Amino acid sequence: MKDLLQITDLTSDDLALLLELATGFQDDPGSAGHLLAHRMVPMYFATPSTRTRLSTAAAVTRLGGTPVTVGPDELHVRHGEPIADTARVMGSYSAAIVIRTPADADVREAASAAPVPVVNALTDGHHPLQAVADLLTVQEHFGDLRGRRVAYVGGGGSVARSLMEAAALTGMHIAAATPLGYEPPDEAIAFAATEADRNGGCFVLTTDPVEAVRGADVVYTGGRPPAGGPKDDRARRRKALIPYRVDEHLMALAGGDAVFMHCLPARRGEEVAPGVIDGGRSLAFRQAANRLPAVQAVLYALLTGRLKGHR
Ligand code: CP
């Protein structure tokens, strides 16, 4: 497996390996400190990023390499150079390429052309690095994943999709509550249902946040509208998501030891009550911290050929 473009690229064993490696990097951050010696990892971010950009830069540094961030105005992509040409050239200087850009097709095109691993750092369809960090955080908190109940409440975008796909690969029970018209794509629903069932878990999609969170170990919200989508869709989406705000009342319906998770950045008061995200049951900032060992594990595994994928 050369690239990580979406969670469905991974097998259950691949994901388990990533979590094991990430746990190892939590304990010993410098254990592969020469892997990228004298090598560069360019990170192309066409849209803003705090966590993904900086955690990846830190991970590349921990692996002994040099991260170089480039924005949309610094490359010729925006002015007509095909992304395939850009990726092919970048790859000739680099150990791997990290890309955040709205269109999944662009990341796939870059991966096809690049001679080195390409990692999706968020598209409108997928956020695999976030999902690996999310499961690392759940595992770290509870000590296990299989059989744990995760409730996702909000819009069925990239974060929800990658989370439910990853949770399904581990045998978690997943309930996603999304407004009508903002469900995850059909192929993601099919994957989550099939893989959850195969791994001893289950997948339920509902429009009712109360149904989703009842008895949950994890209540998760967050995500963002597609960066490539029309502006008026954003206002409509915000309105549709009002009943999906996670507040103290909704958290009270979850399990007694339930935790709250959010990928950040958070819109306090809109998608989550301040008392929930800043309260004692919130793992949001632990998730953010875990982005670093998670991306370190992904880069390490890809660069050492440890992931099998579905070939
Ligand atoms: N969660 C996440 O991807 O954050 P950034 O947009 O800051 O990278």
Task: Name the features.
2 domains; alpha/beta; single chain; 5-stranded parallel sheet; Rossmann fold; 9 strands; 12 helices; globular; 4-stranded parallel sheet; 311 residues
The amount of helix comes to: 40-55%
Rg, Å, rounded: 19 Å
Mean pLDDT: 96
Architecture of the largest domain, CATH level 2? 3-Layer(aba) Sandwich
Number of helices: 12
Q: Count up the domains.
A: 2
Percentage of residues in strands: 5-15%
The rounded distance between the terminal residues' Cα atoms is 8 Å
- Which hetero compounds are present in the coordinates? phosphoric acid mono(formamide)ester
Order of helices and strands: HEHEHEHEHEHEHEHEHHEHH
What sort of overall outline do the alpha carbons produce when their principal axes are compared? globular
- Name of the CATH homologous superfamily of the largest domain: Aspartate/ornithine carbamoyltransferase
List the helices and strands and how they pair.
Blueprint: H1 12-27, E1 40-45, H2 51-62, E2 66-70, H3 83-91, E3 97-100, H4 104-113, E4 118-120, H5 128-142, E5 149-153, H6 158-169, E6 173-177, H7 186-198, E7 202-206, H8 209-213, E8 218-221, H9 231-240, H10 248-253, E9 259-262, H11 274-277, H12 284-303
Parallel strand pairs: 1-2, 1-3, 3-4, 5-6, 5-8, 6-7, 8-9
Helix pairs in contact: 1-5, 1-12, 2-12, 3-4, 5-6, 5-12, 6-7
Bound molecules: phosphoric acid mono(formamide)ester.
